[in-house]
Amino acid sequence: MNKKWWKEAVVYQIYWRSFFDSDGDGYGDLRGVIKKLDYVKKLGVDVIWLNPFYQSPDRDNGYDISDYYGIMEKAGDMAAFDELIHEIHQRGMKVIMDLVVNHTSDQHPWFMESRSSQNNSKRDWYIWKDPKDGREPNNWRSYFAPSCWEWDKATGQYYYHSFAVEQPDLNWENPELRQEIYKMMRFWLDKGIDGFRMDVINLLAKKEDLSDAENPYNISYLANNPGIHDYLKEMHREVLQHYDVMTVGEIPFVSPEEGLLYVDESRNELNTLFHFQVADEMPVLDMLRFKEIQTSWHEGLKQKGWNSQFLNNHDHTRQVTRYGNDGQYRIQSAKLLAAMIHTLPGTPYIYQGEEIGMTGVRFDSINDYNDIAMKNKYNEEVAKGRDPEEVFESILLLSRDNSRTPMQWSSSSQAGFTAGEPWIKVNPNFKEINAKAALEDSDSVYYFYQKLIELRKQNEVMVYGDYKDLLPDDEHLYVYTRSYNDVTWLIVLNHDDEQQRFTFNGFNNRKLILTNYKRDFEENEEVLHPHEARIYKIN
Ligand code: TEU
Question: Would you call 199 a catalytic residue per the annotation?
Fold first, then answer.
């Protein structure tokens, strides 16, 4: 396995609009990120991923771009951006940006031209189709709307959108468009960024056969279509190979076999990926299936390609709420999940606030929410005549706003996030859960992450070690080894609210490296407390 800096790295994701507000307008911003860089650096992370801050009408929180070369006013300006990358590099960290090139905003000048007439020179930069029998070309849904087709009355055709109506998809078949995107990528790389997180990058190629889907709700037809690998190879040839950067593709709807096609080192496409088998299959943790997924990805990519490890991000409910215990065992559970993510094979990601064990949120009314995915879903279901309360309840757990509430810096007003009115309410639990309290407590979740990251720096086994699941059929205990050269680590996790027992047969000569419980010398080592995590070195 080739050694690479991005395999050894730990990535910290900053959703800047909810991170820190430097000017009191209620939105986090780039200068706010600069102010908190020492906090991030202290954790020990190597790379920062910034969510999109390009110019945008902001219907989908920056994922609807109207100018790839401009900075959204809420975020700051180009001077703030330049200062930010300088400050990140000064501290010995790297920075990757979101690349959103599956779609633009409907306010992007390209789309405004494209929709101006059927024979406009940019018509073909987007995907336009004639109606079929007086209606949409087929029954396909989009992520955020009941149809992926939107009627344009003025020019008498439908345009295609994988996400919201305001996010028309670009037509990657058009070579001129592709060159324009590559030029834009070079612009940012030449400014000194260290790579890209590529938004839904496996959606670029569209299915040619437009016949109806048997089950339109399974929207996997939007992704992995013929031609996708040609585009990514071209992007690599034209742009990426000329820079020492990391790329991580957001790649939904793939098995390990298909995933490998994107990250196989010999294929020259992407470095790593986020797959969504865990997120898409399990609203809450299904331990047995989770283990199966880990093993199959490890076996599938082994020696050939590289994985990522994450349980939450700006789209997915905070991990301690969704996959752990955010009540009685919140701290232990947050630490256990951390220990797991940082000892499984792949590059680990930390989503801002995860390092202090921030939780999901429950607001009283749909009006307190902002997420376009959630709101569109709510409106669609209520329009069908369903009870609004019932619809509301049913979409709470997976609302993307669970992860988008402001970073909790302190117990003061608005959790120390802003001097103004935050764009989204703070989670009411900020008095108890905040960064200030975490930094003052040597036993906090924050310092547990710090230790894990330090361990990764000192022990190649955590990065390059082979992985073996020792108890694939146990629903509570997750026990596995990582081995590299002569070193073997044993990881024992009790992901349960009850005690569990593990007999260390065959692991007699062991040394405890890290645990999330203060253990008493006399205690029976075979008994694991609720949500206890231990990392051992085996001699
Ligand atoms: O997300 C794509 C998306 O919908 C993921 O949330 C989903 O979890 C994944 O595809 C698995 O099904 C990206 C951005 O992260 C999101 O914030 C944007 O809204 C979306 O693309 C559109 O740009």
Answer: yes
pLDDT, average across residues 380-404: 96
The yes-or-no answer on residue 250 being catalytic is: yes
- Ligand 1 centroid – CA 244 distance (Å): 26
Instruction: Provide the CATH topology of domain 109-160.
Output: Oligo-1,6-glucosidase; domain 2 (3.90.400)
- Please give the share of the chain, as a percent, with pLDDT higher than 70: 100
Average pLDDT along the chain: 97
CA distance 481 to 479: 7
Q: Is 143 in the pocket of ligand 1 (CB under 6 A)?
A: yes
Residue 388: Cβ within 10 Å count: 12
Would you say the CB of residue 496 lies under 6 angstroms from ligand 1?
A: no
- 44 touches ligand 1 (CB under 6 Å): no
Over residues 289-326, the pLDDT tens digits come to 999 999 999 999 999 999 999 999 999 999 999 999 99
Of the chain, the percentage scoring pLDDT greater than 90 comes to: 98
| CA 138 to ligand 1 center in whole angstroms | 23
CATH numeric code, 5-104+175-364+405-449: 3.20.20.80
- Decide which of 1.20.120.1760, 2.40.30.20, 2.60.40.1180, 2.30.260.10 is the CATH code for 465-538: 2.60.40.1180
Q: Distance between CA 51 and CA 23 in Å, rounded?
A: 19
Count the alpha carbons within 13 Å of 450 in the hemisphere toward its beta carbon. 15
Does the pTM exceed 0.85? yes
Q: Is 417 in the pocket of ligand 1 (CB under 6 A)?
A: no
Strand partners, 467: 482
For residue 94, list its beta bridge partners.
Answer: 47
Condensed to tens digits (0 to 9), the pLDDT of residues 236-271 reads: 999 999 999 999 999 999 999 999 999 999 999 999
Gap between the Cα atoms of 382 and 362, Å rounded: 20
